[in-house]
């Protein structure tokens, strides 16, 4: 192994061992409340596994304003005899008519979320590895992040119409006043 490969191995090993206990998350696990996210905030989540299994980890967050959310996941598999694969990210919540599913878990996004509480479910499978690099009895896991950005408010058409009429009225009043002042000056 080259020097850079060894550094990557030890960094991956340290990261995996850091998550070797139960689910680690700044986002609250479903059933234990929810994490309030403000615009521009980023929260982390993750979990480690020591045995083969399927998983559907649920994290809960709430939004106070309308927002877009985006994030990504990274699997950690440091030469372990286990392999991990995240198959989908699902978002559900009271303001959604149906669950939103993203099958590209490395990078995901959900747009135009209304204020409310949401559940983010990370689904996947941990299997027994069969490759030449699957020889150490180390845990595998994943880490991820979720970021929210507020949606800029766009006025409704009726608001635009009232604003244009208001500016037109102010312009007309200024025009009349200037004509009246010009007539008095003569």
Give a verbal description of the structure.
The protein has 186 residues and is of the alpha+beta class. Helix content is 24%, strand content 44%. Strands 2, 3, 5, 7, 8 and 10 form a six-stranded mixed sheet that branches. Strands 1-4-11-6-9 form a five-stranded antiparallel sheet. A hairpin with a 6-residue loop joins strand 7 (82-93) and strand 8 (100-102). The longest helix has 29 residues, at 157-185.
In short:
This protein has 186 residues and is of the alpha+beta class.
In N-to-C order, the SSE pattern is: HEEEEEEEEEEEH
DSSP helical segment count: 2
Helix content percent band:
10-25%
Radius of gyration: 27 Å
* Main beta-sheet strand count, sense and barrel state: 6 strands, mixed
Question: Count the strands?
Answer: 11
How do the strands and helices of this protein lay out in sequence?
Elements: H1 3-18, E1 24-25, E2 28-29, E3 35-37, E4 42-49, E5 53-63, E6 67-76, E7 82-93, E8 100-102, E9 108-113, E10 116-128, E11 140-150, H2 157-185
How would you describe this structure in keywords?
186 residues; alpha+beta; 6-stranded mixed beta sheet; 2 helices; 11 strands; rod-shaped
